[in-house]
Amino acid sequence: MSNVIVLKNGLDIPMKGNAEPVTTKTVSPAVVAIQPTDFKGLSPRLMVKEGDAVLAGSPVIADKKNPDIILCSPVSGKVKEILRGDKRRLLAVLITPDDEQKYVDFKPANPEKLTADEIIPRLLQSGLWPWLVQRPYGIVADPAAKPRAIFVSAFDSAPLAADRDFTLGQELNAVQTGIKVLAKLTDGGVHVGLWEPTASSTPFHKLEDCVFHTFRGRHPAGNVGVQISHVAPIRKGDIVWTISLLGVAAIGRLFQTGKVNLRRKVAITGPMAINPSYVDAVPGMPMKSIAGYYGDAGCGVRIVSGNVLSGKAAGPEGFLGFFDDQVTILREGDEKELFGWLRPIRYKQFSTDHCYFSWLTPWRKYDLSTNLHGGPRAFIMNDSYYSKVLPMDIYPLFLTKACLAGDIDRMEKFGIYEVLPEDLALCEFVDPSKNNVQDIIAKGIDLMLKEMA
Questions:
Q1: How far from each other are the two terminal CA atoms of the chain, in whole angstroms?
Q2: Predicted confidence band at 299 (pLDDT cuts at 50, 70, 90)?
Q3: Cβ atoms of 380 and 402 closer than 8 Å
Q4: Alpha carbons 68 and 164: distance in angstroms, whole number
Q5: What is the pTM of this model?
Q6: Which of 301, 300, 303 is nearest to 326 (CA)?
Q7: 3-state secondary structure (DSSP) of residue 238
Q8: Reduced to 3 states, what is the DSSP secondary structure of residue 68?
Q9: What angle do CA 420, 231, 321 make, to 5 degrees?
Q10: Between 20 and 30 A from 325 (CA), which of 210, 248, 273, 342?
Q11: Within a 13 Å sphere around the CA of 35, how many CA atoms are in the beta-carbon half?
Q12: Pairing state of beta strands 59-63 and 240-242?
């Protein structure tokens, strides 16, 4: 086992609503959505029309810039509707699943007997290639590029995150096959991050053909970007690929069975979740399918696909994201509190700055809502304030200001190549000025993609 990398900065948000390790429902959705907006850098081109029949693994959307990159249907069925937004922007393709699922047969294969040139077309044709995310910028990986290394985080430290040992621990063989596949795509090896408290007990410490790195610390210790920054920071000109453990397992299933199987255990979490637990589902399931987990709260809750820090607000009419294995259900905090800032004795309010006496009860879990507790201010906090929750060797304050100014030289200088918006999510959470730090970083990345193309 590798040496332990200790992260001194970070923050674990003590929220109520952690999912119990039990699967309480198998979701059979009436419709499944394929959302090209889940994939950064993808310019979607439709390959189907309403009424077409598809199989699980059939191509539905292709990338205009690289037609070899496709998105496939996670289910067999019939194309029900094509959703478009402003300027006919493609938002989603809705598919009505069959009662009995049918799959495209890609044939099982042994990755140890294949070369990278034989593996890449199989990943592209099956629609599993978009699981590979290229850094810098967090875009869909370029099949023609050669990554310096591939990084996988085997744990998630985000608030109320799904327990990967529970969701994928029984699929160790599929994960191992996926690792063997990925190892053929790079000369720098596959690097797997483990969490130190469970490093010796997790099933994933048995994986072979990879390099382990063990981390100890608070969130964002589980973010693969943070792990990369402590193992081998990304510099200008570097190309690194990352993939979630869900993606590794999906690739492993493809090579073992010849079928595209994207089913997963999804953690239903959050203070407003009824019976927080796990459901068996597919990406793109409608949130209406889990209405029993938020009851009659209706418009009084916010339903997030993903974690509370970097997830996407889907709402009852939305769908589970392609990369997500967590749904967070929060109370909409639209209430106002008169002179709240003058009341320090508030045991039910969480504060990162010891503003309230709740810091005397560190074991307490909080019913956190979406309330901002104040309005935005035109002021960015000093760098030490952000740095205390960001265990990376960058300057988050100056990077944020450089992104606001659109100064590419300073963005490069202060670490734009090393981060994605999710890495600075805690900076946004602790910011008293209520700046949308993740949006600022995302716009900076978009500018880099435009100017550096």
A1: 40
A2: low
A3: no
A4: 31
A5: 0.95
A6: 303
A7: coil
A8: coil
A9: 35
A10: 210
A11: 21
A12: unpaired
| 8 A C-beta contact, residue 141 and residue 134 | yes
- How far, in Å, CA of 130 to CA of 247, rounded? 9
3-state secondary structure string, 323-341? CCCEEEEEECCCCCCCCHH
How far is CA 297 from each of CA 267, 279, 301, 333, 336, rounded to the nearest angstrom?
Answer: 19, 20, 6, 13, 20
What pLDDT, on a 0 to 100 scale, did the predictor assign at position 397? 92
Q: For 84, phi and psi rounded to 5 degrees?
A: -125, 155
b/e string for 277-290 if b means 16 or more Cβ within 10 A? bbbebbbbbbbebb
Written as one letter, the residue type at 34 is I
Average pLDDT over every residue of 151-180: 97
What is the per-residue DSSP string for 372-393? Answer: -SS---S----HHHHHTT--SS
Q: Is 253 exposed, middle or buried (0-12, 13-18, 19+ CB in 10 A)?
A: buried
Give the amino acid at 304: V
Place of tokens 């690289």: 66
pLDDT one-digit tens code per residue, 79-136: 999 999 998 999 999 999 999 999 999 999 999 999 999 999 999 999 999 999 999 9
Of the candidates 75, 101, 84, which has an alpha carbon nearest to the alpha carbon of residue 36?
84
263 CB burial (10 A radius; 0-12, 13-18, 19+): middle
pLDDT by residue (tens digit) across 176-209? Answer: 999 999 999 999 999 999 999 999 999 999 999 9
In angstroms, the CA 449 to CA 139 distance is 10
What pLDDT does residue 342 have?
Answer: 66
Amino acid at 249: A
Q: In whole angstroms, what is the distance from residue 353 CA to residue 372 CA?
A: 15
What strand order describes the sheet that includes 44-46?
44-46, 59-63, 70-72
The amino acid occupying position 432 is: P
Cα angle vertex 387, ends 383, 389, to 5°? 140
Beta strands in 167-262 (DSSP E): 190-195, 211-216, 240-242
Residue located via tokens 């749904």: 327
**What span, in angstroms and rounded, lies between the C-alpha atoms of 7 and 313?**
30
Residue 212 · residue 205 · CB < 8 Å: yes
- Residue 197, CA distances (Å) to 16, 215, 405 in order: 22, 9, 42
